[in-house]
Amino acid sequence: MDLGLTGKVALVTGGSKGIGKAVARGLVQEGARVAICARTQTDLDAAATELARPGGEVFSVTGDLTREADVQRIVDATVRRFGRIDVLVNNAGAAPGGLLLDLTEEDWHQALELKFMGYVRCMKAVIPHMLRQGGGRIVNIVGNDGVKPIGVELTPSAANAADLAVTVALAEQYGRHNICINAINPGPVATERWDGLIGGIARVRNISVAEAQKRAETSIPLGRICTPEEVANVAVFVASDRASFMNGAVITLDGGQRKALLD
C-alpha cells in the first residue's frame, strides 16, 4: 500500500531512540525526508547515520523542548533544510512515576514542562507553517496513562490527559485548515526507557523487577508488551494521506491492558 509519504517532510521529536527512532525509520522507508531532534548530539548522530543507510534523507538537530527558543530553532532549522514541514510527530518526553505522597513539586513541574508543554510548544511552532502550506498532519504519541490513569504513574496520567485534551481541541480548531491532529496512546513498550520504568514500579510496589515485569505482561491479554515498531506502524499510517479523514482521534494501542492486574 502506497501511503503517499514520498517527498513529504516530517519532524520527529525524541527521534534518537525508542519509539521516535522507530517512527523516523518507518517514515524514511515510506520515502519521507525526516528531521529528528533530541537533547544529546552523539545519540542523534548515531541515529541519523543508522536511519539514512537505506538511502533516506535524515537531518538531525539538538534541542531541549522545555525551552521555547530551542523549539523554534529546531523548527526553523528543519524548514531551512527542507523548505516545509508536512508532518509533526510529537514523541519526546517522559514524566517521573511515583505515588502522590512521594512526588515533589519539581516532579510535577518536570512532567508538565516536557511531556505536556513540550508538545504544546512544538505544535505552536509548526502550525503556522502548515497554515501557509495549506495543511499538514500532527501525531501526538502520548500514552495510555491519560485514558487509563493509575496512582503509581500519577504525573504521567495528568500530563497525558492534558495532551489528549489539547489534541482534540486543536483538531476541532484546525481541521478546517486541512491540519489533522491525532493522538496515539501506547501502553508498555520495550524501549531503552522500559527498564527504568519497570524498576520504578518494582520499588513502589516493593516487589522484584521480575515480578513487576510479569505483572505488566499479565495485565495485557496478548501476554507481552508492545514493540517500538508496532507503535511506529500506526503512527506512520496516521501521518499519511491514507488517514485523510482521521482527525481528533485518540487511538489506544496497549493490547487491551487492564491496569488493575498490576496490583
How does this model look, in words?
This protein has 263 residues and is α/β, with parallel strands linked by helices. The chain has a seven-stranded parallel beta sheet with strand order 3-2-1-4-5-6-7, sandwiched between helices. The longest helix has 29 residues. The chain is globular and about 50 Å long.
Strand content: 5-15%
Specify the number of helices: 8
Structural class comes to: alpha/beta
The radius of gyration is: 18 Å
Total count of strands: 7
Mean pLDDT: 94
CA distance, first residue to last residue = 42 Å
How do the strands line up in the largest sheet? 3-2-1-4-5-6-7
**SSE pattern:** EHEHEHEHEHEHHHE
Estimate the global geometry from the Cα principal axes: globular
Low-confidence stretches: none
Helix content: 40-55%
Tell me which oligomeric state these chains represent.
single chain
Q: Describe the biggest sheet?
A: 7 strands, parallel
